[in-house]
Amino acid sequence: MTDDPDLRSLRLLVAVGEHGSLSRAAADLHVSQPSASKRLSLLERQLGLVLVDRTRRGSTLTPGGQMVADWARRVLDEFAGLVTGAQALRARHQATLRVAASMTVAEHLAPGWFGELRAAAPDLYAGLQVTNSETVAELVRSGGVDLGFVESPSAPAGLAARRVGTDRLAVVVAPGHPWARRRRPVDAARLAATPLVVREIGSGTRETLDRALTRAGAPPATVLLELGSTTAVRSSVIAGAGPAVLSVLAVAVDLREGRLVEVAVADVDLRRTLRAVWTSGRRLVGPPAELLAIALRPS
């Protein structure tokens, strides 16, 4: 690979996936179709991958293209966050509520909580860091954030904690995987012995899986591919890399629309508790207390 892909090329790839058409993607981004086609070809050369299937009926992403597009969305979201953060610094704003959350909580629960909080306090300036559960706990201990949300099997040591919900992990495969047609549940020994696409060590999802296998008398999961985000794991499974164990919150739409299939398991308890955590001995007041109260409300 010579030069790194630029943001315009990544936006184009994402737009092709959303519109199913290179011409509509080009129009959406206000560039000519020939220019868009050249940019897409350059991106494929830079990455050494075929990203788009071009036919008379339109342009669709290849499985590899879909994975790259999912990663590209994360890059674009992070860049948007960088711009927003720089604007905040330039305006000399200071966050009055600093929160860190694990990825499942941040992507599927926190947006609703923050929306309700902002409706009640429209002038509130809040910052949310999205990371794994282990890092969330470290940020709370160091005073880097006022409140954290984790999805680990047990409360982090040395922190005050409150249950805010429950979650369940599911074994998922692509529709073409042999397990998608399996009639008998997969037991703990088989699940542990099968190479899986997994999250990194330190994530609540990984810790929940390994602890559940240990409680069932099996060794920790065998790693086929270790990735740093739920989106990357999900995309790899859809592309056929192998099975994974992910939150049902993260794969609900894929299961409903048939991109993934849930595999029944036996003798493995994959339920987990979602918790708010804060500095031990500290009484929450103001915006942190208000956000916790919203999180504790029945959904």
UniProtKB/TrEMBL annotation:
The keyword Nuclease does not apply. InterPro entries: LysR_HTH_N (IPR000847), LysR_subst-bd (IPR005119), WH-like_DNA-bd_sf (IPR036388), WH_DNA-bd_sf (IPR036390). GO terms for molecular function: DNA-binding transcription factor activity; transcription cis-regulatory region binding. It comes from the Bacteria. This is Transcriptional regulator. Keywords: DNA-binding, Transcription, Transcription regulation. Belongs to the LysR transcriptional regulatory family. Residues 5-62 form the HTH lysR-type domain. It holds the Pfam family HTH_1.
